[in-house]
């Protein structure tokens, strides 16, 4: 079955996945969820943290304690360990919900991104190299270059569709340095933004942030050399992040911004 672009975004956006389950958990408490669920990313150095204020408007309309409503929604939130809904969720403060995917859920999404056959529905002519999106085009070309190098490298060969060692022996992400985690965060933030809105300016902003974070990762986190010899699993995890980022950049460039995604510059 060929998935639509919207289906692809809903599959990979943690925001879309969590929003759908919050809506279901709200209805399970005999409450009417609003048309728009107020969910947003919160800066956190160790987690892909989301914050939701749905209990506040519900409490106002029901004349109830927002903290109790938040706790009831959290209790009804169905988690699926090892699946897309492998989230932690808690009621905090005066009625806010905090939720975040587990390292295993993040690893699973990164793996699926690295091997997923994104549909190509571009029908309009695609523009060539452009100054306003050159950073995005350069980042995509850099991804392609790194993957070509890996295909030629017998010590760290890259085979499309292979599993990457995302987790260590304790089930934690191998990619835990600041530049690595910021690149992962920007990757999912760009997918969240596209799932929420097709506004070109907003998509360009998210895609530019992803390009900056990816290039910072490329600058600060080596794949070859000593890392390749001494910590091969980490080197392969970093290569996996390149493989997961490349199709998202291509999608953002060609599907959302209507410009060419070059494989080399």
From TrEMBL:
Q: Where is the Arginyl tRNA synthetase N-terminal domain?
A: 12-101
- Which EC numbers does the record give? 6.1.1.19
GO MF terms here are: arginine-tRNA ligase activity; ATP binding
What cellular component terms from Gene Ontology apply here?
cytoplasm
> Which SMART domains does the UniProt entry name for this protein?
Arg_tRNA_synt_N (SM01016), DALR_1 (SM00836)
Arranged from A to Z, the UniProt key words for this protein are:
ATP-binding, Ligase, Nucleotide-binding
PANTHER family assigned: ARGININE--TRNA LIGASE, CYTOPLASMIC (PTHR11956:SF5), ARGINYL-TRNA SYNTHETASE (PTHR11956)
What's this protein's name?
A: arginine--tRNA ligase
Organism of origin: Oxynema aestuarii AP17
Upper classification of the source organism reads: Bacteria, Bacillati, Cyanobacteriota, Cyanophyceae, Oscillatoriophycideae
């Amino acid at each position: 079955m060929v998935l639509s672009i919207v289906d692809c975004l809903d599959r990979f956006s943690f925001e879309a996945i969590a929003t759908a389950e919050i809506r279901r958990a709200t209805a399970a408490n005999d409450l009417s969820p609003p048309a728009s669920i107020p969910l947003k990313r919160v800066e956190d150095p160790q987690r892909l943290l989301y914050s939701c204020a749905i209990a506040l408007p519900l409490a106002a309309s029901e004349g109830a304690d927002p903290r109790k409503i938040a706790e009831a929604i959290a209790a009804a939130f169905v988690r699926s360990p090892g699946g897309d809904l492998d989230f932690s969720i808690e009621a905090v403060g005066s009625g806010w919900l905090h939720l975040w995917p587990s390292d295993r859920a993040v690893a699973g999404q990164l793996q699926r991104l690295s091997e997923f056959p994104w549909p190509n529905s571009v029908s309009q002519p695609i523009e060539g190299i452009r100054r306003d999106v050159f950073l995005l085009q350069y980042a995509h070309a850099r991804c392609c270059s790194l993957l070509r190098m890996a295909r030629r490298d017998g010590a760290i060969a890259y085979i499309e569709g292979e599993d990457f060692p995302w987790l260590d022996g304790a089930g934690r992400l191998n990619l835990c340095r600041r530049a690595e985690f910021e690149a992962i965060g920007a990757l999912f933030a760009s997918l969240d933004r596209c799932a929420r809105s097709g506004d070109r300016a907003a998509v360009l902003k998210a895609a530019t942030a992803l390009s900056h974070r990816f290039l910072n990762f490329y600058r600060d986190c080596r794949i070859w050399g000593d890392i390749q010899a001494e910590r091969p699993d980490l080197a392969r995890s970093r290569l996996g992040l390149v493989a997961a980022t490349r199709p998202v950049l291509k999608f953002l460039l060609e599907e959302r911004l209507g410009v060419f995604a070059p494989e080399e510059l």
